[in-house]
Amino acid sequence: MHGADPRLVLGLHRSRHHRDILTAALDLGVTALDTAAPYLGFRSHTVLAETAADLLPKFAVSTKVGFFPGAGGAEHSLDPSRLRLAIEKAARELGREPDTVLLHNPERSLTSLSPADGHALLGSACTTLVDAARDGLCRTWGVSSWDTRPLGMVGVDDLPSPDILMVRAGFLVGIDLLDATAVLRSVWQAGETWGMSPFGGGNGKVWEDFDPRPFLRPPHDGLSRVQAAFRTAFHLPSAAAVATGTDNPGHLAELVQALGADVDTTAVSQYLRALHGHRQS
Question: Which CATH number is 131's domain given?
Answer without folding.
Answer: 3.20.20.100
